[in-house]
Amino acid sequence: MSVVSQVILRADDELRYPSSGELDGINKFLKTGEQRVRIAEAIAENEKKIVDKASKDLFRLHPEYRAPGGNAYGQRQYNQCLRDFRWYLRLVTYGVLAGDKEPIEKTGLIGVREMYNSLNVPVPGMVDAIRCLKNASLALLSNEDAQEASPYFDYIIQTMS
User: Which residues of the chain have pLDDT under 70?
Assistant: First the structure.
């Protein structure tokens, strides 16, 4: 949920007008709108490049995942890993666009650790995968944009850890 929606809902629940502090928060949110859109566009436009770099880095770090018996052994399993990489990138863009981590949590992190455990996917490896996605993504952004995007990757990493 965006900052604007949160302020409106909170004020409405309390039967009041938004406070000056809340209005300042909305103002800041609106001023950073161009930046948030720019970040989301950069990630979306470079998805293939990001996923390729992140997967190479992950499998260099964990070659056992691509070896016989590994979770990414075989084309089908490998493609499923790449599908998950793309999904996490989309989650990051949702958070960046909303200026809030809530879309990440609601859309994709509830129960994720349990799901991976039930599928025998090593959760520490998924955390490493998100770190690789983060590094590959931030390398394509300006320092200022990377600073803005970084906490959304960190939130996923923290939640999965």
Answer: 1, 111
pLDDT at 103: 87
Query: What pTM does this model have?
Result: 0.88
Beta strands in 12-149 (DSSP E): none
Which residue range forms the structural domain that includes residue 121?
33-160
Q: Is 71 exposed, middle or buried (CB count within 10 Å of its CB: 0-12, 13-18, 19+)?
A: buried
Same domain, yes or no: 101 and 50: yes
Query: What is the C-alpha end-to-end distance of the chain, expressed in Å?
Result: 24
Among 54, 32, 20, 21, residue whose Cα is nearest residue 128: 54
Q: Which among 116, 136, 123 is positioned nearest to 55, based on CA atoms?
A: 136
